[in-house]
Design brief:
CATH topology: Alpha-Beta Plaits
Protein name: 4Fe-4S dicluster domain-containing protein
Strand order of the largest sheet: 1-8
Strand content: 25-35%
CATH class: Alpha Beta
Number of strands: 8
Shape: globular
Order of helices and strands: EHEEHEEHEEHE
Distance between the termini: 6 Å
Largest sheet: 2 strands, antiparallel
Keywords: 4Fe-4S, Iron, Iron-sulfur, Metal-binding, Repeat
Structural class: alpha+beta
GO molecular function, one term: metal ion binding
Number of domains: 1
Domain 4Fe-4S ferredoxin-type: 51-81, 82-111, 115-148
CATH architecture: 2-Layer Sandwich
InterPro entries: 4Fe4S_Fe-S-bd, 4Fe4S_Fe_S_CS, RnfB_subfamily
Helix content: 10-25%
Length: 150
């Protein structure tokens, strides 16, 4: 089964975090711009990692046999349309998937307008016309979509 994911070219990434902002805006929608600063929750589904010499976003690789799915004690993670999907309502916030992910691509986030903390990872901007917002927004074209068999 082929899987599709976003990958970064660390040689092109400048660490500006435009991809993170594009991700948050894409998932929050236009209503985000009507919120007070104190009400905005910034939980991107990717994380730019930096050190002294290199920077690049870390994102879900949409594994064909995901360890995160195996680690979830409540079955909140499944493969849907060749993508690893987290059912945010079923997620109990135990962090087992965070520990299991070999790419460090899952973190925890507050649900918008709720107190519940759930697993948070790239969903390839599911339902967004034009594909992942991060790829489109990157000023150096450091991000690209990969289709891989396996």
């Amino acid at each position: 089964m082929a899987n599709c994911y976003v990958i970064a070219n660390a040689k092109k990434c400048i660490g500006c975090r435009t991809c993170e902002v594009a991700c948050v805006v894409s998932h929050a929608g236009e209503s985000m711009f009507q919120l007070k600063d104190s009400d905005i929750k910034f939980f991107p589904k990717l994380t730019v990692m930096k050190n002294k010499t290199v920077s690049a976003p870390v994102q879900c690789r949409q594994c064909g046999n995901p360890l995160c799915m195996k680690a979830c004690p409540v079955g909140a993670i499944e493969i849907v349309d060749r993508k690893v999907h987290i059912d945010r309502e079923a997620c109990i916030g135990c962090k087992s998937c965070v520990v299991a992910c070999p790419f460090g691509a899952i973190d925890m986030a507050l649900e918008i307008n709720e107190e519940k903390v759930v697993a948070n990872k790239c969903d390839l901007c599911e339902g967004r016309e034009g594909g992942p917002a991060c790829v489109k927004a990157c000023p150096t074209q450091a991000l690209r979509i990969v289709n891989k068999d396996g």
